[in-house]
Amino acid sequence: MPLLLWVCHAAWTQELSIETSDSSGVIMVSASADMRVQPATAWSVISDYDHLADFLPNMRSSRVVQRNGNQLVLEQTGVFGFLFFQQPIQVRLAVTESPPRRIVAHAVGGNLKQMDGSYTLETLPDGKVRLSYAGRLLPDFTIPPLVGKLVVRKILARQFVALVGEILRREARAAPQTPPAQAQ
């Protein structure tokens, strides 16, 4: 069942949809947000690897350790947790960029058995930009069975909402400021 959220920021109202499911321990997630932003703003946020920890909850560090054109290696650390459940995360990702539309990442190290994800940007006919995320995650640790789906859903929703929020903040900063009307 999708989680629908409405996010208000400045003059924009955005609809987000986040779905999670699991099968044999593999967690699948898909999320999307339609925003009134410039595609370049959205791209600059999703590809700002060295600053992701500044605005994504539970991420402690994120840094590019190697780059060769549109291929890079990214190391990230953080905490996967909710209430009483806390699990440190370390992941090394092989990332392929296809600017300005797509980023694909695949775990090549760390404490995730499997992690594959992609971000896609699409300009819609009404001028909005759709940010979509699709991912598969197989942790190398046990997630408590009774709260596992809830934990995953809350963490992923918080991170996606934070990503969209940062896109909107940067768009608002980049928008030309209209001076107040002069009184006559």
UniProtKB/TrEMBL annotation:
It comes from the Bacteria. Residues 37-157 form the Coenzyme Q-binding protein COQ10 START domain. Belongs to the ribosome association toxin RatA family. PANTHER family: POLYKETIDE CYCLASE / DEHYDRASE AND LIPID TRANSPORT PROTEIN, POLYKETIDE CYCLASE _ DEHYDRASE AND LIPID TRANSPORT PROTEIN. This is SRPBCC family protein. It comes from Comamonas guangdongensis.
